[in-house]
């Protein structure tokens, strides 16, 4: 469908990790770290199941990548993530010295790679990241929208059931 090793190709891999998150009842966000055209790490949201607000897909993938390359610096790596990183994750990416960030859907509420702020390319920080946004954005956005629509319907049905309504 897409050329091998293109941004779209890798985003599809990140979307597969988002599917795993959803299977665990998590917000469907997935991430992979690529180095030399190989996936060296992956992550998906685990904040709910791990009771850990820092267990975002990016955080999980970067932690795994550091162990894989045995370094806390990701100088020649690219992170692919289905949703624009929040400020916590954008800060992590700066500290990890990741070379490149590619994300799908923009996050107009907490996105910190251009939407509400841009920590990834802030001129006063000691590292700036090459950012590509909007890769398979519609697919990534739809996955999140469908999840939240389903979640709202489940909450509404649970409230109805608690009231004894049919």
From TrEMBL:
Gene3D superfamilies cross-referenced by the UniProt entry: Cytidine Deaminase, domain 2
Active site positions: 58 (proton donor)
Cofactor(s) needed: Zn(2+)
Signal sequence region: none
Root EC class: hydrolase
Superkingdom of source: Bacteria
Catalytic activity, EC: 3.5.4.33
Cofactor note as given: Binds 1 zinc ion per subunit.
GO molecular function terms attached to this record: tRNA-specific adenosine-34 deaminase activity
Matches recorded under InterPro entries: APOBEC/CMP_deaminase_Zn-bd, CMP_dCMP_dom, Cytidine_deaminase-like, tRNA_aden_deaminase
Annotated keywords: Hydrolase, Metal-binding, tRNA processing, Zinc
Chain coiled-coil ranges: none
CMP/dCMP-type deaminase domain mapped to chain residues: 5-132
Binding site for Zn(2+): 56, 86, 89
Catalytic activity line of the entry: adenosine(34) in tRNA + H2O + H(+) = inosine(34) in tRNA + NH4(+)
Family matches, as Pfam families: dCMP_cyt_deam_1 (PF00383)
Family matches, as HAMAP family: tRNA_aden_deaminase (MF_00972)
Cited function: Catalyzes the deamination of adenosine to inosine at the wobble position 34 of tRNA(Arg2).
Subunit (UniProt): Homodimer.
Family: Belongs to the cytidine and deoxycytidylate deaminase family. ADAT2 subfamily.
PANTHER family to which the protein is assigned, alphabetical: CYTOSINE DEAMINASE FAMILY MEMBER (PTHR11079), TRNA-SPECIFIC ADENOSINE DEAMINASE (PTHR11079:SF202)
Protein name: tRNA-specific adenosine deaminase
């Amino acid at each position: 469908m897409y050329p091998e090793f293109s941004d779209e190709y890798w985003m599809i891999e990140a979307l597969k990790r988002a599917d795993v998150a959803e299977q665990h009842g998590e917000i469907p966000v997935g991430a992979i770290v690529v180095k030399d055209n190989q996936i060296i790490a992956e992550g998906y949201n685990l904040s709910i199941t791990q009771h850990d607000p820092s267990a975002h897909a990016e955080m999980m993938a970067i932690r795994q990548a550091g162990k894989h390359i045995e370094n806390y610096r990701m100088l020649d790596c690219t992170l692919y993530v289905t949703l624009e990183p929040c400020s916590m994750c954008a800060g992590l990416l700066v500290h990890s010295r990741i070379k490149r960030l590619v994300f799908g859907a923009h996050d107009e509420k907490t996105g910190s790679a251009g939407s509400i702020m841009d920590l990834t390319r802030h001129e006063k920080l000691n590292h700036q990241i090459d950012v590509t946004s909007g890769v398979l954005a519609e697919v990534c956005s739809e996955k999140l929208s469908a999840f939240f629509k389903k979640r709202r319907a489940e909450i509404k049905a649970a409230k109805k059931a608690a009231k004894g309504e049919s």
